[in-house]
Amino acid sequence: xxxxxxxxxxxxxxxxxxxxxxxxxxxxxxxxxxxxxxxxxxxxxxxxxxxxxxxxxxxxxxxxxxxxxxxxxxxxxxxxxxxxxxxxxxxxxxxxxxxxxxxxxxxxxxxxxxxxxxxxxxxxxxxxxxxxxxxxxxxxxxxxxxxxxxxxxxxxxxxxxxxxxxxxxxxxxxxxxxxxxxxxxxxxxxxxxxxxxxxxxxxxxxxxxxxxxxxxxxxxxxxxxxxxxxxxxxxxxxxxxxxxxxxxxxxxxxxxxxxxxxxxxxxxxxxxxxxxxxxxxxxxxxxxxxxxxxxxxxxxxxxxxxxxxxxxxxxxxxxxxxxxxxxxxxxxxxxxxxxxxxxxxxxxxxxxxxxxxxxxxxxxxxxxxxxxxxxxxxxxxxxxxxxxxxxxxxxxxxxxxxxxxxxxxxxxxxxxxxxxxxxx
Length: 424
Known about the structure:
Largest sheet: 4 strands, mixed
Number of helices: 12
Number of strands: 24
Distance between the termini: 8 Å
CATH topology of the largest domain: UDP-n-acetylglucosamine1-carboxyvinyl-transferase, Chain
CATH architecture of the largest domain: Alpha-beta prism
Strand content: 15-25%
Number of domains: 2
């Protein structure tokens, strides 16, 4: 499905968003592993979370989706007594998490994903699990793979420079191991706020992680307790509506914005503020406003907010001067190569773009609408659509890829004044 974006006037709107998929990805695993019932409210209903629920249930865990926004978990009754298969679809996060969860069982568990997921790196988590005594069968340390536990060794090290998801995956299962677990990080860990997020959620279920420098210690043979929790709105989803206000002008109000979020992307508004937007807080409302003032290009370290780089790149197309996004090397390993592919599509529009291994630089200028590829990447579709709010003739190809994280994205855009239509 292709969508043409209809240029918009200045915006004047309020937005209420579903819960963070980053939190939900972790919560569903924690809920599955808990020894008591867990109720999760305001869960985003998207492809990744649905894949996670199906995959965990295939392993004998008991997650029930009640109304699309509430998930209830019940304690697992017994471990697996025979091998099973789990499909991870396009989800890199779930693929890494379920690899660790699979290591808790002493039967072969076969993991496989979509063609795109099967090409993404898994070597970090596989190497760590092998060090823990888990058998891994994989041709090139990607999916498909067969994992046979249990964990026999309780200490390992892992390179943190590729993905923080490997670290989070091991921490999530650590309390379920027979004895105390020690994890040492080598290299410079990326996106450390996601590790902090994992540790915070574990704490809410009664498990403490001791952190000393690059070493993490978790007591074994613990139970995650139950409870009822409401998932805060997603900062990355919020970024598109902040970006829309910056590009179109006017005012957008985000309701129930989580100002205390540990997620690095929750600080995206600082980037827009430095570029010239007026940002205000009113209780739990975030107000983003741009009147007549021009956007001015700046240089930003995006190492702790990687998933809003594409949003910022779209905004940068409308700024005076050059906007530089640095410390982004790990974006090459996402759903697409988010450095090269973003640069390619922006250049099609006429933007002046430069890039390297760990940076992307965009210089504002006159743009011309054209058809844009999404590379089977939901964030490519959502960020490029913002450009169409000001530039006539922008068509987003395969726009339905947004179902991975934000199925009603284009409907929500319409509520703030940015319309679109399906085209051939």
